[in-house]
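queue> pop job 88
queue> type: inverse folding (structure -> sequence)
queue> payload:
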């Protein structure tokens, strides 16, 4: 509002020239300001000019009274212009802070002008008027947080009023100024942290109360304000200081109520006293002085006039005090009392419920629920309040004791129709989303702690806060999916199936398909699970990771057939070139491992082994296996498993599979991985030899004959093995040195197989004989191996007497060269040699056969009885004697004599043939006599 211009004598006499010029310039600037439109930008030079003229005018003081009067008028005109500008800016809320500061500067200039003429004659109370300008300007600076400038104004105003006798002041406005000035100075001192000065100024203000209720109230309010600020610091010293200041405020209220007489003034002070007492109670509560809190509450409730204080905060203060004393029964009464007190604001009772539940814990959940639902029935409760209560009921997590009790209470609260109704409508979208999130997070915490029953209940309640509209379909589907998971955890498969079916209706995606897969697994429905694996690959959001996850789930459920299906489907995506969750070789390795857990899967295992070999050929070892040590481990794993599986099926006489596995083993062992010079040649060689052996064994088992093409393939394999054999030594295999040595058995098997296959190509015997001679010359050759070769060459439709003769003769030489010959093998070798020679030579070369008998006799000479096998000795003796039968009939005396003589000699070396020997001697004597009688001697 405008400050009225004072009337003063019109001094028309001329002013001194310097004063006149400066005052004219100031007046001109004021006129410009008076004409200035509030809509236009503030003229910056105007403020600068006024400050400059004021400075120049100040240097010319003191002034004559006429000049002072002129300055006085100019000051008021400037002040009134400021009032007009301020009123205009109030209409325009968009006024900038810069304008506000310019306005404060103008007021400061006006006050400074008035200060130059504060002792003018003819103006009543000029000091108070000047002090009033500084006081009001200081308030503006204070609002702008320019506390130094505000304090300067207040100090000037204080200096102007300090020379006035306070007792002589009777004007109410002047008294208000004195009180307001002290309070304003105190506020500024407090803002700059000069609290001692602030309190001292408030104490000084007590001397200017003048028995006015308004003054008591204003001063008490300032004490209370400072007390509240100190109390908010939460420091012990701050709480003590705040309590002291509030007690000062309370004392002022008490004094004011004793002085004032008017009822309205008494009521105002009484309200102030109640407010102060409530804050004192709060400070006691902050210091855990619960008994003091209850005393304050009691005093307030027992106030004489008006039936006592029923402020809503009293119930909260009393309840918290009772909780602090551990008297939950009284605290519960206070809490329930809020239900019937309609004056309790929503924020207050929500805070009370939170505090009660925080102190009482899970034991107070039922009470908190009852209070909240009771409040629903008597007053409007906002959705935000419901969220706060539910958050407090939920607590910080599910690890604390009584979490299931809390969750049960929460479920009852949020499912109440009145609570659900708070969140209906477009205006409650944000709150509905928040409530859903609170319940969802609570359910998720219980789910993580494997409390699936509680989790399922909370997820169900969260669905109450998801609207049935198109926009919420995804969220509802997500809720059904987690409910499916909960019931899976509880092994309630039918309920889980129902929920996932509903989820798939709302949002058919890979997550729903995968959960249906899990349900099929847990129902042991392997066929259904395999069908679901196929369905997953058709989902729009399908990624190969789900097939890998499906395999893990199937393995965990021991559904190996399902795991194989998942991994085999996963293999189909590796040729696409897309990023995959794991390497292809790892998937194949896992598949082979799974299949190996059950017998009878060798054929299927072979399929994936062959696939591994094919992909290896397509991608190369570095891409398929990987580089470095990782690649070598992968290569060795496939090679070793091919070898081991081939060995196992070979023992089971599944020779066709055995050949395939060993063939793959040779290929894997031969792969060169990152940085290697060559593969494992020894194992390649072994695998090739065993591959051919298995092919031949399969041929015999099937009673079929290898095709020429197959024979040539087998020979090629053996040729590869033969080339490797030329580069490695043959000897006893030593662990850790198997790269350069090979078991002699393999060289024998190689020779035997090569001999067998070469005989099938209608080749001459030179190749077979060369093979046997090369083997006989090797270090790994032994008489036993030669005997077997000789026997093999002497039998069957494709026998080779030349090879058999060489092998058996070499075998016999080796046996006889031994220090302790094995005469059982010697006898068998001699018998076979005699048979081969007899069949091969026939009667055309009888001397060769006779030589074999003669050699046998020479071997038997000198042996102890029983060293040479008796049966073999008898066989030699008898067959030699029997060979004389034909010459005897034909009259070939010499041939007959030769055979009978060697037969008799051999019989003489065989124990137990004495009777035969006598008969032979008698027959030979008779034959000799007969021969001499006929003249054939």
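queue> result:
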């Amino acid at each position: 509002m405008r400050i009225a211009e004072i009337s003063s004598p019109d001094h028309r006499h001329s002013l001194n020239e310097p004063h006149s010029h400066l005052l004219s310039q100031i007046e001109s600037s004021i006129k410009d300001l008076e004409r200035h439109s509030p809509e236009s930008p503030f003229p910056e030079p105007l403020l600068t000019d006024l400050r400059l003229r004021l400075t120049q005018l100040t240097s010319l003081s003191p002034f004559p009274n006429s000049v002072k009067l002129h300055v006085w008028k100019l000051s008021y005109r400037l002040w009134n212009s400021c009032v007009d500008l301020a009123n205009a800016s109030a209409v325009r809320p968009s006024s900038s802070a810069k304008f506000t500061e310019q306005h404060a500067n103008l007021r400061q200039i006006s006050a400074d002008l008035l200060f130059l003429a504060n002792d003018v004659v003819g103006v009543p109370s000029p000091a108070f008027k000047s002090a009033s300008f500084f006081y009001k300007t200081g308030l503006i600076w204070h609002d702008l947080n320019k506390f130094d400038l505000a304090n300067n104004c207040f100090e000037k105003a204080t200096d102007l009023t300090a020379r006035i006798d306070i007792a002589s002041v009777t004007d109410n406005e002047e008294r208000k100024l004195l009180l307001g000035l002290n309070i304003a100075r105190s506020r500024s001192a407090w803002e700059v942290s000069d609290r001692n000065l602030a309190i001292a100024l408030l104490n000084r203000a007590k001397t200017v109360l003048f028995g006015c209720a308004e003054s008591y109230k204003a001063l008490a309010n300032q004490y209370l304000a400072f007390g509240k600020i100190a109390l908010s610091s939460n420091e012990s010293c701050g709480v003590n200081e705040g309590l002291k200041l509030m007690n000062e405020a309370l004392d002022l209220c008490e004094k004011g109520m004793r002085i004032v007489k008017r009822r309205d003034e008494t009521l105002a002070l009484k309200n102030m006293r109640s407010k102060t007492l409530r804050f004192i109670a709060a400070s006691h509560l902050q210091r855990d002085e619960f008994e003091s809190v209850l005393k304050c509450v009691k005093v307030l409730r027992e106030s004489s006039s008006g039936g006592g204080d029923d402020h809503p905060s009293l119930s909260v203060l009393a309840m918290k005090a009772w909780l602090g004393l551990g008297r939950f029964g009284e605290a519960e009464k206070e809490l329930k009392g809020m239900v019937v007190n309609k004056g309790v604001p929503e924020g207050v009772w929500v805070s009370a419920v939170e505090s009660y539940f925080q102190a009482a814990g899970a034991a107070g959940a039922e009470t908190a629920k009852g209070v909240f639902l009771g409040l629903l029935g008597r007053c409007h409760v906002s959705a935000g309040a419901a969220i706060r209560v539910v958050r407090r009921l939920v607590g910080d997590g599910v690890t604390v004791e009584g979490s299931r009790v809390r969750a049960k209470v929460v479920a009852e609260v949020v499912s109440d129709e009145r609570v659900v109704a708070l969140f209906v409508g477009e205006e409650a979208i944000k709150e509905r989303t928040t409530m859903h999130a609170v319940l969802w997070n609570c359910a998720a915490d219980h789910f993580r702690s494997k409390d699936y029953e509680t989790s399922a209940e909370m997820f169900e309640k969260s669905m109450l806060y998801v609207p049935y509209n198109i926009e919420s379909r995804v969220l509802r589907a997500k809720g059904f999916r987690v409910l499916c998971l909960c019931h899976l955890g509880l092994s309630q498969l039918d309920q889980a199936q129902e929920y996932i079916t509903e989820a798939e209706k709302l949002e058919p995606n890979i997550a729903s398909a995968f959960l249906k897969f899990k349900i099929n697994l847990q129902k042991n429905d392997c066929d259904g699970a395999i069908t679901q694996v196929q369905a997953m690959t058709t989902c729009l959001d399908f990624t190969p990771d789900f097939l890998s996850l499906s395999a893990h789930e199937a393995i965990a459920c021991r559904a190996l057939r399902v795991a194989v299906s998942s991994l085999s489907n996963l293999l189909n995506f590796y040729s696409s070139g897309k990023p995959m969750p794991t390497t292809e070789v790892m998937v194949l390795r896992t598949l082979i491992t799974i299949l190996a857990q059950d017998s009878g899967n060798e054929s299927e295992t072979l399929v994936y082994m062959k696939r591994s070999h094919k992909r290896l050929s397509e991608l190369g070892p570095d891409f398929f296996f990987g580089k470095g040590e990782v690649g070598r481990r992968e290569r060795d794993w496939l090679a070793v498993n091919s070898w081991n599986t081939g060995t196992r099926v070979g023992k089971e006489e599944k020779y066709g599979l055995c050949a395939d596995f060993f063939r793959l083993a040779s290929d894997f062992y031969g792969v060169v991985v990152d940085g290697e010079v060559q593969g494992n040649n020894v194992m390649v060689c072994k695998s090739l030899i065993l591959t051919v052996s298995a092919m031949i064994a399969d041929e015999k088992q099937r009673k079929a004959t290898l095709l020429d093409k197959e024979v040539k393939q087998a020979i090629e394999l053996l040729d590869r093995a033969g080339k490797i054999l030329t580069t490695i030594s043959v000897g006893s295999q030593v662990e850790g040195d198997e790269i350069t040595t090979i078991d002699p058995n393999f060289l024998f098997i190689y020779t035997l197989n090569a001999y067998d296959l070469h005989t099938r190509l209608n080749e001459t015997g030179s190749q077979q004989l060369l093979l046997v001679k090369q083997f006989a010359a090797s270090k790994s050759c032994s008489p036993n191996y030669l005997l077997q070769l000789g026997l093999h060459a002497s039998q069957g439709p494709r026998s080779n007497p030349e090879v058999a003769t060489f092998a058996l003769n070499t075998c016999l030489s080796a046996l006889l060269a031994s220090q302790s010959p094995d005469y059982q093998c010697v006898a068998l070798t001699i018998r076979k040699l005699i048979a081969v020679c007899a069949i091969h030579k026939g009667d055309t070369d009888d001397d060769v056969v006779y030589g074999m008998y003669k050699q046998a006799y020479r071997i038997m000479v000198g042996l102890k009885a029983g060293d040479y096998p008796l049966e073999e000795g008898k066989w030699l003796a008898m067959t030699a004697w029997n060979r004389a039968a034909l010459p005897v009939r034909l009259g070939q005396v010499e041939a007959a004599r030769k055979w009978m003589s060697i037969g008799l000699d051999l019989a003489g070396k065989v124990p137990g043939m004495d009777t035969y020997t006598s008969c032979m001697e008698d027959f030979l004597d008779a034959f000799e006599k007969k021969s001499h009688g006929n003249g054939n001697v």
